[in-house]
Specification:
single chain; alpha/beta; 11-stranded mixed β-sheet; 4-stranded mixed β-sheet; 24% strand
Length: 446
């Protein structure tokens, strides 16, 4: 009964109270996902042009940038013309934060956020309320693809869970959010055991959280023979979902995992649908490019740096913003019938690509997965490249660890790194977390 009341009564009433457009935008997205791709792209282009014109008038940073490069906002009538605008970097935001904020916005009225700085650059961000409502609507749509629905209680595997303060937050927590938390900053047998008992009492219908943290919890369930936690959906986000982690999670919960990709700066970028075969790009809300080292488009099927333009945030426009991730775009059509194109796969963060003495690069995420799945006896692993010729392998022993594990691990790494690179295995009890609760599998400090 509480689930139905939350979906049909509390959610609509809360939107009326807040004068929010969240549910209206969600319903629009529900319709737009089935439009022909050409119609969705036309809507996206219309919104992109509107954002460029707004930024040219109201953002001191983009007003100066467009003037410097001789770009007239009204002249941008094609993707090629749009690429005349230089790419925006994290460092640009950090160095010129005030100039990004729109003259039409009062900073005191804006929502603030801060990125965790996993690539070495932490950012302060500003959003207006309509932007937040549209982003929440996109999340509602993606949640439903995963098997969650409005009102359904959720189990969240997340770091630093929010604690409601005051009557309004408490009411929202119980009537709308309806979430129980497993704090990833304190993952241990005792905390996970307590979470299992709470799960059994409250019976959440879906799981949401950091991909690797859900994996650790799934391992705990498997190791302790716990088979009665059966959600309708699982959403893995905030970090790379590795193939062996997906298999473990799906086995432990007897439920498919939905991989989701987004970031604090622009919100949802892409998400798997019920087909679980690539992630649909969120075209109504973001314009996504895949670029090579010279900031030129790569061909479909080739890895490219992901560059995103936010079509929602008029308070702090971000145009052609490089999110420091690498992904592969596809022209393949999904069998689900949606008109949204496909992000075939993510290949990791730019900062997590390790460097070869020959001048090449290798995806640290892919290398970690390759060795984890190939070499038995490894529970967790992290690669840290301090210099071009020194690679540290933080390795956590697994149940099958034996005298052959480390030699096999080094042999697998030698298939990529030649003898010029000294590979040192460091035995650790666990892989350390970032302050946000996330894990980094590979770190390049070169």
């Amino acid at each position: 009964m509480m689930e139905q009341l939350s979906k049909h009564v509390f959610y609509p009433l809360w939107d009326v109270k807040d004068r929010s457009q969240r549910l209206a935008e969600w319903k629009a997205l529900e319709r737009q996902q089935w439009w022909p791709r050409e119609d969705i792209e036309a809507l996206q282009w219309q919104r992109l042009q509107g954002m460029i014109r707004h930024a040219a008038r109201n953002s001191p940073f983009y007003r100066a940038l467009l003037a410097e490069y001789g770009v007239e906002a009204e002249s941008i009538d094609s993707p090629a013309a749009f690429r005349r605008i230089p790419v925006t970097t994290k460092q640009s935001i950090r160095n010129h934060l005030d100039a990004f904020i729109s003259d039409a916005s009062s900073r005191a009225s804006l929502v603030t956020a801060k990125t965790g700085g996993s690539t070495g650059v932490s950012l302060n961000l500003y959003f207006d309320e309509p932007c937040q409502e549209r982003r929440n609507a996109a999340q509602l749509l993606a949640d439903r693809w995963a098997g969650w629905d409005l009102g359904m209680k959720r189990a969240s595997v997340w770091g630093n869970p929010p604690v409601p303060h005051g009557l309004k937050q408490t009411l929202r927590h119980h009537l709308l959010d309806r979430t129980i938390y497993l704090d990833t900053m304190d993952l241990n047998p005792e905390s996970m055991g307590a979470f299992v008992e709470r799960w059994r009492r409250e019976k959440p219908g879906a799981v949401f959280g950091h991909a690797h943290s859900i994996y650790i919890f799934a391992q705990y369930l498997q190791d302790n023979g716990i088979h009665d936690l059966r959600p309708h959906g699982i959403v893995a986000t905030s970090m790379m979902l590795l193939d062996h982690e997906r298999r473990m999670i799906e086995s432990a919960f007897d439920c498919r995992v939905t991989n989701r990709y987004g970031c604090e700066e622009v919100g949802l970028i892409a998400c798997e649908c019920e087909q679980h075969n690539g992630m649909h790009l969120n075209l109504p809300h973001v314009y996504v490019e895949f670029l090579d080292a010279n900031d030129e488009p790569v061909a479909p099927g080739e890895p490219g740096k992901i560059v995103v333009t936010d079509l929602n945030n008029f308070a702090m426009p971000l145009i052609r913003y490089r999110v420091e991730d690498v992904g592969v775009y596809s022209e393949r059509r999904c069998e689900c019938g949606r008109g949204l194109p496909i992000l075939e796969r993510l290949e990791g963060r730019v900062a997590d690509f390790l460097k070869l003495p020959t001048g090449g690069q290798v995806s640290g995420i892919s290398l970690v997965e390759r060795t984890l799945t190939k070499v038995p006896g490894i529970e967790q692993m992290q690669l840290v490249q301090e210099t071009l010729d020194n690679l540290t392998i933080n390795r956590v022993k697994g149940p099958e660890f034996d005298a052959g594990t480390d030699p096999a691990l080094l042999a697998a790494l030698r298939e990529v790194f030649d003898e010029r690179v000294r590979c040192t295995i460091q035995d650790v009890a666990a892989i350390p977390q970032e302050p946000s609760g996330k894990y980094r599998f590979s770190i390049c400090r070169v």
